[in-house]
Amino acid sequence: MLFKNFNLSDELLKAAALLGYEEALPVQEKVIPALLADRDVLVQSKTGSGKTASYAIPEIEKIDWLGNEPQVLVLTPTRELARQVQVDFKSLGAYKRINAVTLFGKQPFKSQIMDLKQKVHVVVGTAGRVLDHLERGTLNLDHVHTCILDEADEMLNLGFIEEVTKILSYLPAKCTMAMFSATINDSIKEIAETYLHDAEVIKVGEVKKYNTNVDLFYVKADKECKEEQLLKVLYKELPQQAMIFCNFRESVEQVFDLLCEKRISCLMIHGGLMQEERLANMRDFKKGKYRVLVATDVAGRGIDVANVTHVINYEFPTTTEDFIHRIGRCGRVDKKGKAISLVLPTQMKYLNMVQEELETELACIDEQAFEGVVYDSILSRSEEIRQKEEVIDEDKCKLYFKGGRNKKLRAKDLVGAIMDVPGVEFNDIGIIEVLETTSYAEILNGKGELVLRGLQGKSIKNKQITVEKKR
């Protein structure tokens, strides 16, 4: 089914087309009509199936731009996934001028409060920080018409059930509920029965629990030469991009040092890094600036990096669930992927457990397959990838105004000044932020330079305000 057949607005269809959305994926074909009709849904869908767009598209369509309070709440298990969901909402909602903010821990609380004082349509966050804002009275959910629980099973696994249920108690009585989960267990069913009403149950994909787009292999590892085996795997496969998973941060650092020593283009992520560094590393990896990302399971859930072709388990996971979510980082949507695990003799019990629970077998790669492997310098190079938000940004310009609440400026004052520029229409104006001493305005449809020239030397609210293009 084509997206244009969903009866969506021209603004949303324009953004979707620029982002490469043409034909709906199975989960999108089923979820979009349900949410457009305000029906509760319980969705079981494998990772990498396109589920974020399946709820972002209908919710963007339903948002009333004139409203100043949040209308959509999305809860995620990790801050990395929250950031990704925010990007998807802002990219798909660019021409409808949708503003989405993130709320998660280890971010300054004060800056989040400032974000919430702006016009906010969508709030995406982790349960702990969202509940913190609700209890302090800095987040108002009275106008939320839809609540999304993304990766609901993982939120429960991480012990957020109490926070989630408290958050749900703040929602309006007629709020539409949507739960997305890779698995539907008894805990998920209990939440669904309590908070979802006449929910449509949607199951997409094969019955198998794992991403069958990924071919599964293992190598019999030797503790004494495991690092050398890892290098042979990398140089034999020459992945476009790869994620290497370890069970401990010390192992991540050890592998990272090894790859750096061999001049392989790489980054690392683990829970011991500062949040800013983790987010920056993930952003650079998604942009293709680095070929390999070494990580603990902090990066194993819900992160969408389009060009990851290989997942390598340097240390085999101790649970089937961790195995599923690791390998789900490749083979996204309709692409093929390859997962290779280095398995020590002491870890064979975990391999057997995974094979039994997934009702599949991992093919063993014989040591002879690595004979004659050339240590090619290609792994030291990377190729930047255009991100979907950058496609939208090409048509968008952000202007900086040297004045804010200190000069009694309001959003409507900036709108009025911009609309006075000949050739500019209301639909050319995106998100406007008025801060204490500065303000920002997004100009859409390629009219940024026109507006910038038109505002030079002009006064706003009888005040001379410097206007520049944000760098």
Task: Jot down its keywords.
17 helices; seven-stranded parallel sheet; globular; alpha/beta; 20 strands; 3 domains; Rossmann fold; Alpha-Beta Plaits; 35% helix; 471 residues
What's the arrangement of secondary structure elements?
Blueprint (H helix, E strand, L loop, with lengths): L9 H9 L7 H11 L4 E5 L5 H12 L9 E5 L2 H14 L7 E4 L5 H8 L5 E5 H10 L9 E4 L2 H6 L3 H8 L7 E6 L4 H10 L4 E5 L9 E7 L5 H12 L4 E4 L3 H13 L4 E4 L5 H12 L5 E4 L14 E4 L6 H8 L9 E7 L4 H11 L4 E2 L23 H6 L3 E5 L9 H9 L9 E6 L4 E5 L4 H8 L3 E2 L2 E2 L2 E3 L2
Parallel strand pairs: 1-6, 1-7, 2-4, 2-5, 3-4, 5-6, 8-13, 8-14, 9-11, 9-12, 10-11, 12-13
Antiparallel strand pairs: 15-17, 15-20, 16-17, 18-19
Short description:
With 471 residues, the chain is an alpha/beta fold.
Structure description:
This protein has 471 residues and is an alpha/beta fold. The protein folds into three domains: 3-204, Rossmann fold, CATH 3.40.50; 214-380, Rossmann fold (3-Layer(aba) Sandwich); 396-469, 2-Layer Sandwich (Alpha-Beta Plaits), CATH 3.30.70.330. Helices cover 35% and strands 19% of the residues. The protein has 17 helices and 20 strands. It has helices at 10-18, 26-36, 51-62, 79-92, 109-116, 127-136, 152-157, 161-168, 186-195, 226-237, 249-261, 275-286, 320-327, 348-358, 388-393, 411-419, 448-455; strands spanning 41-45, 72-76, 100-103, 122-126, 146-149, 176-181, 200-204, 214-220, 242-245, 266-269, 292-295, 310-313, 337-343, 363-364, 397-401, 429-434, 439-443, 459-460, 463-464, 467-469. Strands 3-4-2-5-6-1-7 form a seven-stranded parallel β-sheet, sandwiched between helices. The protein has a seven-stranded parallel β-sheet with strand order 10-11-9-12-13-8-14, with helices on both faces. Helix 5 (109-116) links the parallel strand 3 (100-103) and strand 4 (122-126). It is globular and about 75 Å long.
